Each structure stands twice: as C-alpha cells, then as structure tokens.
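Sample intake sheet
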Amino acid sequence: MKLLKLVQNQVRVGEPLPWGVRDDQGKLLLAQGHVVTTAAQMAAILERGAYVDVDEVKAAAKHAAEAEQQRQRPANLFTFWERMLWQLDRLLRGAQDEPGFPQRADELARHIVALIERDADIAIYLTVRQDPKRLSIYGLAHAVHCALVCLLMARRVGWDEDRVLTLMKAALTMNIATLDLQGRLAAQGVPPTPGQTAILAEHPSKGAEMLRAAGVDDEAWLQAVAQHHERPDGSGYPAHISDPSDLAQALRHVDVFMAKISPRAIRTPLSIQAAARELFAQDRGGQMAAAIIKEFGIYPPGDFVKLKSGEQAVVVRRGASASTPLAASITDRSGMPVVSSIVRDTAKPEFAVVSVISDKSLVLRMPPERLYGLPE
C-alpha cells in the first residue's frame, strides 16, 4: 500500500469522504463515506497526521470523471428510465418523513406513463432484457417494471385512466415493507431463511399500514397492496381471503409474471413463452392474463431469437402480428458477431423467427443504444 499525505484541499467539510483516511502505518481511521462535519474536526485530523491510499485516490478520481461525463451526456429515454429507479427509491424511503407522499407517488406514476407513451417497445424491452449483475436493486426495478406492465394490461382491458393510475401506484408501492429484502433475496442464491419468510408473509398488510401512515387514503390503492398475494381460492396470503379486489388480482398476475422472467441468483428466469403459458393456465384464460400476453406478443422486444437466414437477432419492435416482430441482427448468417445491426422484418419468409435462443451471453453484452440509438 502506497500512502499519500492528506492535505486540506482534498477534503470538503460536509461531504462524504471519497476514500478512507489512514494513519502513517496504513491503519484505517475514517472509512470511505464518512462525513467530516466541522472545520475543527478537519483541523484535528490533519494535525494528527492523515494519509490516503494512492490506489483509492486514483479509483475515486476515475469514478468522479466518469460521473461527470455521464452528467454531460444528453439525456435520452434510457437515462430517463434509469432515473425512475432512483426517484422511486427516494419516494419509498422518504414515505414516512417527507410530506406529500400520495402526490409524489402520483407524479412518479404519471412520469412512467409519459415514458411508456413515448416508446412502449423500449419499455417492454427493459422488462425483458434485465441485467443479472444488478440484482441488488431488484426491488426497485421490479416495481417499475410491474407498473409499466400494469398500464399496458389495464389499457388493453379497457380500464379508465384513474383506475390505471391507481393500479400503477399500487405496483410501485406493493413491496414498500420489503424494499431492501427484495434485493437480498434476488442476490443471495439460497432460499429465504425462516426470518425472511416471516417478513414476506406479512409484507402486504405491513405495506398497506405504512402507506396509510404516509397519508394514502385511497382505499382501492391500499386494498390492492394488502391483497396482492391473495387468490380467489383462498390459498393466498396473508388473510387467505377468497374475494380479492380486481386491482389486487391484476397486480398479482403482473407481479408473478415479472418475477418469473426476471433473473435471480438462485435460478435462471423463465422464457417469455414459458411464463406466458403458465400465466394463461393459472388465470384459466382470463382477460387479464390474455391482455399481458397480447401486449408482449410471442416474441417481445428484448427477446433473443434465431432467424431463418441463420442470423441471431434481438427483437426491437412488435410487428403486425404476435409472431412477426422486427429484430436487429447482431450476428451474421454463420453466427459471428457483426459491427452494425440490420433490422429484419420477420414477417418476410427469409427472416422468419425459427427459435428462441436460450444462451443469452452474447445479447447481455449488447447495450440498448446499439439497437435503438439514443431516443430523446
């Protein structure tokens, strides 16, 4: 470890330390992220003799440069979707402390509506093509994805806009009582512990209580959250009721469908096609399941397919029929990766989809901007 003596202009009072502060032997005195709150505290640290690891300083500088570069890039649709995750994080974590929670939740839901209306295919792409390296934020991503699928499903069923928004807000907040646990469960690679199972069992009712305490007085919203794991046959939880609300049933269908197609450390996700078959069977061909399946199509944006031409391609747009999407080729006819993608219309016989590709390693390395450009 190579140490560098710390000088005053490297530390800002009131801001988290970008690296650890050490003594002259390399022993850690203040951890990265610690906040020096006063000038007097700063003076005491410097007088004692403080050092930083050169490698940590370089890493922090690189991170700051990358963050600045990201801030300077023009905003695009993918940037806006990413912001939704962190806006939701702030919304849920500040539910008890920041005023106006119901209004802020409504505003966030409307922002998501606007993003979907700008490009529904990209919205679906994001639900299908999830990054398995970001399991720690599963709780946030799952909520946003469920909210957007709720909108697509509810509009296809014919619900009015107020009801659609209520369903979306329920989706965004259904796991407020297990926000961090959701990420741990996705990443831990083993089944839930007894303690985790107990928390999961009560999270619908606990979540509804937290929302009510945060000022939510919309009973349809609260009921949807409290009942989103109940089933009409009474086998659900936590109350084992046999008459959950329509919103709760809709939310359960979307929640289960998205969970099945989402990556987790303990298992690989189901294919869209397998998840759709299970959803349709569980809902016994009901209109909610049918609406989700129709919105996604047989090969939704984000799916990885092989074409009759031999090319491997990522579906980027829904087509005229459920089985004829537009797909961007990412290999040539022999399966070798190509530098530039060509969008193929799979309604043409020579580019028809012949199979879904289960090995996703190639497509997982494909940035969405390569497929869609930088939509504003």
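Comment: The longest helix spans residues 138-157. The first strand starts at residue 3 and ends at 5.
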